[in-house]
User: Fold FHA domain-containing protein from Hallella colorans.
Amino acid sequence: MKRINCPKCGKPIAFDNKNYNDAHLLAFACPNCGKKFAIRQKNMIKQHEPEAEQTVPKQESVGCLLVIENVFHYKQVIPLVMGNNIIGRFMKDTRINCPIMTDDPSIDITHCVINVSRDKNGKLKYILRDGPSNTGTFVSHEILGDREQRVIEDGTLFTIGATSIILKAEEEK
Assistant:
C-alpha cells in the first residue's frame, strides 16, 4: 500500500501499488474535494553525483506533541526538534515544521511556537508562546497574552482553537 496526497486539499489517499507495473499512469479522484488527477509511477535509479548531493542533517527528536482526537481530526503525534517548532494548521506550501492535519477553522496556519533549548544545567526546556493567533493559545485554561511566554513541562495540556495537545518531553539520559 502507498499513500499520496491530493494536490488540491492535501488529504492522503491510499492505493495498492502491487497491481501496477512501473511507468504506469494512475488516475485518482479525491474522495474529500473531488479533484481529479493522475500520477506516473517510475522506478528511477539515481546515479551517484557527489556535487548534486545536498544532505540536510536530520535533527534529533527532543519530545513530541500528542494531538488529541476530536471531530476535526484523528490523533496525531508530532515530533519536536531543538529550536523553534512552529505549530499550526496544515496548508499546502506553508513553511511550518509542526503541521496539524485538521479541518479545525479556529487553528491558524502559524498558531503558536514551542522553543526547545537546554538550560544552564543541560536539561531540556520547553517555552510556549502564541503565534500571534486569532483565537489564542490556552495553558491550564488561561490564555497566553501578547508577548507572554510560558515554560511547559512533560504532560502539560494546552489548547489551540478546538484542539487539545499534550507535551511529551524527551526522557533525560
Remarks:
- The radius of gyration is 20 Å.
- The chain has a mean pLDDT of 83.
